[in-house]
Design goal:
The complex is a heterodimer.
Chain A lengths: L6 H4 L4 H12 L4 H25 L11 H6 L4 H22 L1 H13 L2 H21 L2 H26 L7 H20 L15 H24 L8 H20 L9 E2 L7 H20 L1 H11 L1 H6 L4 H27 L1 E2 L6 H14 L4 H17 L7 H15 L12 H5 L4
Helix pairs in contact in A: 3-5, 3-6, 3-7, 7-8, 7-12, 8-12, 8-15, 8-16, 8-17, 9-10, 9-11, 9-15, 10-15, 12-13, 13-15, 16-17
Chain B lengths: L2 H5 L4 E10 L2 E11 L4 E5 L6 H8 L7 E6 L2 E2 L5 H6 L2 E3 L12 H7 L9 H6 L2 H20 L15 H14 L4 E5 L7 H18 L2 E5 L3 H7 L2 E6 L2 E6 L1 H6 L1 H8 L6
Helix pairs in contact in B: 4-7, 6-7
The chains are: A mainly alpha, B alpha/beta.
Chain lengths: 432, 264
Amino acid sequence: MATQTPQTSTSEHVTAGLLPRIGRSLAVVPALGWLVGVLCAVIIEYVIGDTLAVMLYLPKVPALFGTTLVLKQPLLFPSALLFVLLVYVLPIGVVARLSAGWTNRAAVVLERVPIWLSVLVHLGLLYAVLHVWTEASDYRLQVAKLIMIAVMLTLSINVINGYMGEFSCSHPGFMALGAYASSVFTLLLFKQDRLFGAALLPESLGPYFFPIALVIGGAAAALGALVVAIPSFRTRGDYLAIISLAFMFIVKSAIENIEPIGGPRGMGGQPQWSTLPAVFAGMAICIWIINNFVRSTMGKALNAVRDNEIAADAMTVNTRRTKMVAFMFGAFWAGVAGGFYAHEVRHVTPGSFGIQMLAEILAMVYFGGLNSVVGSIVGAVSISMISEILKPLQLYKWIIIPLILILVMIFRPTGLVAFRDFDIKRILGARR
Amino acid sequence: MNAAAQNNPALLEVIEMTHFFGGLRAVHDYNLTLMPGQIRGLIGPNGAGKTTIFNLITGIHTPTQGRIELEGRSLVGLRPHQIAASGLGRTFQNMLLWRHMTVLEHVKLAHYAQLKYGLAGAFFGSRLRYAEEQRVADNSMRLLETFDVARFADQIVTNLPYGVQRRVEMARAMATEPKVLFLDEPTAGMTPEELVQMIGIIRKIHEEFKVAILLIEHRLKFVMELCERIQTLVFGEVIAEGTPEEIKNNPDVIEAYLGKEEVA
């Protein structure tokens, strides 16, 4: 069925019956099959992308599926569409469908081995996809990395705003703390720079210490969360929102006024340690740990505190500790994401951790869905993508994204994929 | 029962508890001695302070004066979750279920204080965590079967009928392994048939789990049927205490409920 995809545009009268049939025939493809299909597509693009782009009068291989290009030069729409169809849609559909037989058999085999092994296989394939895809341009590479950082951020704020149901606005603050703490660590030890002078250790050792830098960033953010959590213990809802918003501004202006770390001019020259494998591994570990936590009974206590705190208390849940842990845990991952961010953009200023970043993070978490790991991933990827795609529209971007959000809030008030458990076994399982 | 408990056989003892909300005296000189395995009732008109007494004993409010002891240990000043974990379970008048959670998650979560794994286990998925989760899940399913709601285990509570929600709440309270169970108007909003079932459920809890029960209730028939002793509360003060028979014929109680008899 999938082989007929391009014909749907030419023969309109069969479309109505064809699309559901394609959908049904693709339903048998397991996650493994999709990954294989996408891998084939990105390899095809890697091999013939340039030639095909020339043939279709495209200036170069479209970086983000031709969308940015079309916004700049609308006349190229047919070429871009054809490129996407030929390079992505068609190969993915065909390969995924044709390989469904053996990928399903492989998925059955993987169901029998320990779950971590199966997850590693899938992650390996996903990484291969990303690796090949980002070979095309540095721009793509950066977009991919920033999206993965956004996934971490969104997940971490979902712990507080979604699972625990508090409206916390301090996430940019936590991220700033993480970014600065980890930057100070690496600049002090491994880099010759204008703020801290000569490096204390040889730079070649640096990448091995990157995880430590990230943990330090996360710990700094968690400490900041402690500072917010203590006065906001007795408040909920609006009051916590105000306190956390205040915290965000305090962090921003505190950093602006500390000259040794660059003040308002920021801090630059971090080594480029946020490589694709590093960010990918960071994201995978973040998803793993957060998902572990929110699915345990200890993590479900967050939901109980959100839905009814008095009942949670009466059912032996230590609500104060639960809130504290959730807050610091969420902040920790925001700090880690901040560390990755600092070592990716390699220049952080206090101004970048302000209200606009807060708006973006909140948009991601509320768009994707509260109380859901999948939702966070969907939200982070789609909002970052939309935001990147709409860049040619400049300021109008900030009209379109809020509009999308308003629509989502009207039709799905809790977000696209809210209140769903992230069941890895089911996602990776065979489709029979 | 240990040696200390034999000297002081009362399971739960409340002595001269008084509480003020600002200038309002909500509870005055309240005393209670609950023996192991006893079912007692607390009745009284609306606003008499019955739920306040529950909230004071379970730690939601701290009494202005007075002592509360469970098996000889003082509960005053402990936080609600500590009191709950030390063996004092309760249900709520308006149930207070968690609206986004499934029935099974409700009962599992009430095992919180019994979980043996720590945060590290929760984060990294230690072996102990999975063993514990399994144990708690099995135990929860057993409880759900006891209350005849096991078939709803994977449903979100808010989608369930009222009677089922009441049972889920009972199962949740029993999962905290209480020695004393406080039931706050367990029959509120129930039909007469459901009421009869509820009497059966409470009897069953009492026999199977060997808990002592303190019951707030509006419907006198229900209290009379279940309780060994009944206290009547009016404006925060106990005006009568005794067996159901004594309470039924007590002129003060009749007055509180029906008003004074006009003397022609």
